[in-house]
Write a structure and sequence with these properties.
Elements lengths: L31 H15 L12 H11 L4 H14 L3 H5 L3 H8 L6 H16 L8 H5 L6 H12 L8 H12 L10 H10 L4 H17 L18 H4 L19 H15 L3 E2 H5 L5 H13 L4 E4 L2 E3 L3
Antiparallel strand pairs: 1-3, 2-3
Helix pairs in contact: 1-11, 2-3, 2-8, 5-6, 5-13, 9-11, 13-15
Length: 320
């Protein structure tokens, strides 16, 4: 991983009093070309060395990373991604195996329905697209488990196209640097999309790099908690900084609890099934959690989500 260096912040732009802001981007305190050059320059110096960003990374490698990185930090994704790509270097390789194997390999990444969706996408790519990840945004959207963000990310990062890519890191950077608020709204708004579209460079290749550069800035510097503002290339022109870093005033932002929740129980049940490599009797599942009602609810949820298959009364397995 590349070391994070302190990039000198830009001087505040000399704008005549009353001069209009750049067209289409209210709150932006410097010309778009300067913004692009500044953030792209920072990224060139500070980007992490990640295997799905290398020039020879396949579109499939990029797609797998995007599925795994949803709500999961890079350090947890890396070993699972590497094992996954070694076992299933192509969509066809994954499609040839049972969906339960995808759930098994997913391990403890969390939100295991992503594994089933990625398997479903691999099957669709193999059957409908000759085993090649499609490069068309609309076609990507038609794949199982691929939503607006993932389609835009794969089209941008794998095929160097021009799309708005809005994840939580990007939204936070724009909220602070342009809108002057500490955090964006809980759900993406039309105003955010307009801002992101207005900020997007015109050239497709530059836009693709811009998308990942802003994402990296949010992940490494403009973090949700304890942002390293002194290291930010936009420090002196950030609207949130210039406003005195006003505190967040929206709905309470509560972290997701885990201990004692159905999510924890589901994880424990799946761990038994992943390690079994076969059918599992009810008694082995009963041993992982003392609350019978919660345990049954969690198991029913796993079955409803297609992550577990009942074989017969009191016997379960991963899906085939």
């Amino acid at each position: 991983m590349a070391a994070i260096t302190v990039t000198p912040a830009l001087p505040a732009p000399a704008t005549p009093a009353g001069a209009p802001e750049p067209a289409g981007v209210p709150g932006l305190a410097l010309p778009l070309p300067v913004l692009h050059t500044t953030v792209l320059g920072w990224y060139e110096e500070n980007a992490r060395d990640l295997p799905w960003r290398t020039p020879d990374a396949s579109p499939w490698a990029v797609m797998v990373s995007e599925f795994m990185l949803q709500q999961t930090p890079v350090k947890r994704v890396l070993p699972v991604w590497e094992a996954w790509m070694e076992r299933w270097p192509t969509p066809a390789a994954l499609a040839a195996e049972a969906p339960g194997e995808a759930v098994r390999m997913w391990g403890r990444l969390g939100y295991p329905r992503r594994a089933l969706r990625l398997h479903g996408a691999a099957v669709a790519i193999t059957e409908d697209h000759d085993g090649e990840v499609p490069d068309d945004h609309a076609t990507l959207l038609s794949l199982p488990g691929v939503g607006e963000y993932t389609a835009a990310a794969v089209a941008s990062f794998a095929f160097r196209q021009r799309h708005v890519v809005l994840d939580t890191n990007v939204r936070r950077v724009f909220a602070r640097a342009v809108s002057g608020v500490e955090y964006p709204a809980q759900a993406t708004t039309a105003a955010e999309r307009r801002t992101a579209t207005a900020l997007l460079p015109e050239a497709a290749g530059t836009a693709a790099t811009w998308a990942v550069a802003v994402m990296e800035l949010g992940a490494l510097v403009c973090t949700a908690r304890g942002p390293q503002c002194g290291d930010c290339p936009l420090f002196t022109v950030c609207a949130w900084q210039r406003a005195g870093r006003p505190p967040y005033e929206g709905p309470a932002r509560r972290g997701q609890s885990y201990e004692g929740t159905d999510r924890q129980v589901r994880g424990k049940l799946l761990a038994v099934l992943r390690e079994a490599h076969g059918e599992v009797p009810q008694a082995r599942l009963d041993a992982v959690w003392p609350d019978a009602v919660q345990r049954a609810r969690a198991l029913d949820g796993l079955v409803a989500d297609g992550l577990v298959e009942p074989v017969e009364q009191g016997v379960y397995r991963l899906p085939r």
